[in-house]
Write a structure and sequence with these properties.
The protein has about 180 residues and is mainly beta. It has helices at about 1-20, 95-100; strands at about 35, 40-45, 55-60, 70, 75-85, 100-105, 115-120, 125-130, 135, 140-145, 150-155, 160, 170, 175-180. It is globular, with a radius of gyration of 17 Å.
């Protein structure tokens, strides 16, 4: 009986880990000016139209979400900046400023810049970024992942129209979150 319990526990753990590392195929919508979600998860903050300085759209990824990060638009990687930090719970607002993070600036042909910030959470202790400066990315293309529960912030231009609300669930590479 003891070995059976151990076998069941190990099987459940293996299934959970396999589920976490899943990488489903996604088809991004076509069209000019479309910005898709860089991650799967729940929208926890959207830019306030009255605050021109804060254009941050935040998505919380629970351990049950797909953790692959995807390009929100077509463009070229202009800059990448890694910052060490804490490992606060990723759903908290101050995690954006205090946690370990990696920022990727993506610039399209018209000169529009989006910043995608991968933020490690309490369980997430590893950020993977598979692109370098100068790399081209297509909308919905995979560029990295964050291990276990985490957060992704997307900084939009001031003139972007946000298409999502707090509490809404989004799918990386598919859900339209804004229009330029």
């Amino acid at each position: 009986m003891g070995w059976f319990v151990v076998a069941v526990a190990l099987t459940a753990a293996a299934a959970a880990i396999a589920g976490f590392f899943r990488d489903p195929a996604r088809i991004s919508p076509d069209g000019d000016g479309i910005v898709v979600s860089p991650a799967d998860g729940k929208v926890v903050a959207v830019p306030d139209a009255s605050d021109a300085d804060n254009r941050r759209l935040s998505i919380f990824l629970s351990p049950l979400d797909v953790h692959i990060n995807r390009a929100p638009m077509n463009g070229r990687v202009a800059d990448i900046r890694y910052q060490t930090g804490h490992f606060l719970a990723a759903y908290k607002g101050k995690a954006s400023d205090e946690n370990e993070r990696n920022a990727v600036d993506l610039v399209d042909d018209a000169g529009t810049t989006l910043r995608i910030v991968q933020i490690a959470g309490f369980l997430a202790r590893r950020i993977v970024c598979d692109v370098r400066r100068g790399d081209p990315l297509k909308r919905g293309e995979r560029f990295g992942m964050i291990m276990f529960g985490s957060r992704v912030d997307l900084f939009l231009p001031r003139d972007a129209t946000v298409e999502v609300q707090p509490g809404q669930r989004v799918r990386g590479g598919e859900t339209i979150v804004a229009r330029l």
